[in-house]
Amino acid sequence: MPLTPQICIIILRKTSEYSKTIYFYFTIFFLKLYDYFCGINVYVMKKAIIKIKRFDKSVPLPQIIEEGDWIDLYCAETTVLHKNEQKLIPLGVGMILPNGMEGWLLPRSSTAKKFGIIMANNQGIIDHTFCGEVKDDRSSADEWKFNAYALRDTTVQKGDRIAQFRIALSQMASSEDKLNWLISSGVQIEEVESLSDVVRGGHGHTGHKELMK
């Protein structure tokens, strides 16, 4: 039986962590050789699925476009800010990211010029566990938000494109997660009606003080 990506993943599941690391690099080498000598792109398997719930159906569903690698996100609530004011602007979505992945949230390149806001914390990092909700309680849901700082008096209207995101491997990703990402054929958006029932409690819920031992 030929060694295929599917068999590689099965072997990864049954080996120790040390062996997984060795086998991970062997698999990369094997796939490249297979592609080179056979002319068959074995990397193409299935797409990595990003499951997205819209808390407000009037906000557009994020879409993957051919013109760019990043995925745009929209303001979900008209927000008025005065100069030097900071506010969290809801983006109207929660997501379940593929295993081993995290989200990188940034302003769009035109956001500062058009709307006079920047992201106060420069970049948002959304990890894989930020994906829960409590039924009928949006305030405690793990909704993505734009941490805005106003450079001038401004109003951001509902539906304005202000942010963009992409997914990347987390430092906690397993060898299997890395292999799945390596041989995936891209990213696909899937709209869902519910998220995980394990809730982090929304933006900033993990607190600001390090636990003292």
Q: How would you characterize this protein structure?
A:
The chain has 213 residues and is of the alpha+beta class. The chain folds into two domains: 5-38; 48-191, Deoxyuridine triphosphatase (dUTPase) (Deoxyuridine 5'-Triphosphate Nucleotidohydrolase, Chain A), CATH 2.70.40.10. The protein is 21% helix and 28% strand. The protein has helices at residues 5-13, 17-38, 111-115, 175-182, and strands at 48-54, 71-74, 79-81, 86-90, 93-96, 101-107, 117-119, 124-126, 145-150, 154-156, 161-169, 187-191. The protein has a four-stranded antiparallel beta sheet with strand order 2-11-6-8. The relative contact order is 0.23. Mean pLDDT is 81; it is low at 207-213.
Distance between the termini: 54 Å
* Strand order, largest beta sheet: 2-11-6-8
**Discrete helix count:** 4
Spell the H/E element sequence.
HHEEEEEEHEEEEEHE
Fraction in beta strands: 25-35%
Q: Please state the structural category.
A: alpha+beta
Radius of gyration: 20 Å
Tally the beta strands: 12
Oligomer: single chain
CATH architecture of the largest domain: Distorted Sandwich
Average of per-residue pLDDT values: 81
CATH fold type of the largest domain: Deoxyuridine 5'-Triphosphate Nucleotidohydrolase, Chain A
Q: Could you name the CATH class of the largest domain?
A: Mainly Beta
What low-confidence regions span 5 or more consecutive residues with pLDDT below 50? 207-213
For the sheet with most strands, the description reads: 4 strands, antiparallel
Counted up, domains total 2
Helix content: 10-25%
Taken from the alpha-carbon principal axes, the silhouette is: elongated
Name the CATH superfamily classification of the largest domain: Deoxyuridine triphosphatase (dUTPase)
